[in-house]
Structure formats: C-alpha cells, structure tokens
Specification:
mainly alpha, three-stranded antiparallel sheet, two-stranded antiparallel ribbon, 11 strands
Length: 360
Amino acid sequence: MASSVQNNRVTTPGYCVCCRVCNMWCWRAFKWLPVLLIVSIITWSYYAYVIQLCIFTIESTVQQCIYLVLYHILLIMFAWSYWRTIFADIKPIPDKYKLPEADLEKLLSAESEETQRNILENFAKDLPIVTRTMSGSVRYCNRCVLVKPDRAHHCSICSRCVMKMDHHCPWVNNCVCFHNYKFFMLFLGYALMYCLFIMGTCLPYFVKFWKGEFGSAASAGRYHIVFAFFVALMFAISLGSLFGYHCYLVANNRTTLEAFRAPMFRGGADKNGFSIGAYNNFKEVFGNSPNLWMVPVFTSLGDGCEYPVRREHQLQTFTTPQETHGYESMGTTRSSSEVGRETEKWRLCPRKGWTVPQIV
C-alpha cells in the first residue's frame, strides 16, 4: 500500500512538473554562488584599498591620487572583462549542422553501426569539418541531434553543444568558448594585474605592520590592509599559473579539452593540428586590430565553426587562396563535395596551356 501511494506521487504529472521546476531554479541559483563570492571579494577589496589605505592611511595627496587613478583603471578593465565573460552571447550551432527529420529517422532505425556511420558521412559530406572521432567516424551529438563542428563539444552543465569549447568555468557561470575566450583571457590578465598592484602598494604597510610601526591610530583599518595583501597574494599565485597556462594554449592554438585529448584528424591525432604559428594563433583569438587587443570587445577571427589547419591535415578539404589577407590568408575549410566537384571539373575540362592542379 505504501509503495502504491509512493508510485502515485511519483507519477502525478503536476507533482513531477513542480519538482522539476523547483530543482531547475535551485540549480540555477546555486551556479551563481561562485560569481557572488568573487563579487563580494572585489567589493571588500575596494573598501580595504580605497577607504582604509588611500583615504585613511596614506597622507600624501599626490600618492593618493596616483594610487586611486591606477587602481580604478585596473578595476574598470577587470570588471568589464569579467562582465563580458559571464554575459557573452553564446550563439548556438548553425542549423546546417542539425540532422533533418528524414535522416534522423534513418539513423534511429538503422540496424548496424556501419549503416549509422554511412548516414552521418553522407550528411556531413557538404559540411566543412575535418575532425573525426577516435574510430574515424563523424562527430555526432545524439543529445543535440547535430554533427559537431570542428572543436565543438557538448557541455553537460549548459546542456548544449558549444563552439570551440575550452571548459565550463564555475567562476563565470558560463562556458569558456569561441564567443568569450578573448574576454576570459583579458579577465585573467587584468585580475592578475589588479592583484599585483594591490600587493605592491600594500607591501610597505605590511612591512610596517610586521615591524610594529604601523601605529595605533588606524587599529581597525590596518587589519583590512594586511588581509588585502594576503588575499591579493593568494589570488595572484593561482591567477598567474592559470593565465600562464592559457597563454601557452593561445600560442599553440589549443583548448583545454584539446590539451588533454588531442583532436583526431583523418591521419590520426595531432595536438598541434590547428596551430598556424604563434602570431597567427594569437590573432585568431584577439583579432587583427592591435588597438583592440586589450579591450574586451569581440574581435576574434572566424565564425566559430571553421578553422585553418596544418598542411598535413588539409586532405582535400582545405585550400589556401593566393590573394587574400587576414584570416582568409590562413586558408578556408571546404566540404569534401565542393573539392570533389572542383577536381572533376579540372579533370574533365583541361585547356591548352593550363596546368591541372594536384589536389591531395
């Protein structure tokens, strides 16, 4: 009897919907806790530095002005980058990668893996993709019902496929990916500079406190200054290592996921498959305009789905135009059917004096 009542409760539609909605909102609120913690620390650091150090402790007006101007410049750039990383517009995968209903029905009713593989290969032949699974088949997401673009992955936290996914960061409550990777890099850089600046300017007063020369006039405020120094030191160590690691990833054109598992191409796995030189790798993230490199506005190159690859992975799906500039000069990914049609045209219709290109 008890079990039947329990089953009735579980199977009641209204009860299930209410529980799901409740759990959803609780989970959404919980995911914001790390962000609120960071905002709280920044707010307290503002009080400790501006009020306790600059206003109540420093006596020189010139020194106060210099410290306050530099501090607020770093704070604004830090907060701006953090805001853009959190609230970046993460666009969905384009519709051309989504499996049509007819192909989806065929895929679901297929009796063998080989048949499923052929269905996906036939659909993906017109898509500009060069990466494959470990078994060599097309990368397909059965949750989003789409063929994954190169470097895209499914995020279990966001419940969607994300273009050039690096990782899901709880400190920004968002996926770090193609649309906000530049913002994330600037956030790490400005946060590190923010912490180093606080450390450097608080260090003399920390030394005075250690020697017992701080004075008793600001007995309460001096603890805020000392604690600010230690908090800045702690975050600077962690931010320094994280920022250094991501600078390494940018220079080698890898994501965190690709650093742990190298992307698979037709010729095999290659962790440097998307690397096109350190400077071009940098521009792929930060753009072509040096004036905007340090500003948290979107300037990354490309569309998030197609990426230049190294020459050994071009494999009839890559071409390098002779008279292009910027991102296009690095090469543009094309579908195998497009290259196949071009190869057939050159093979059947050669002209006198023309050189038939060898596409390999």
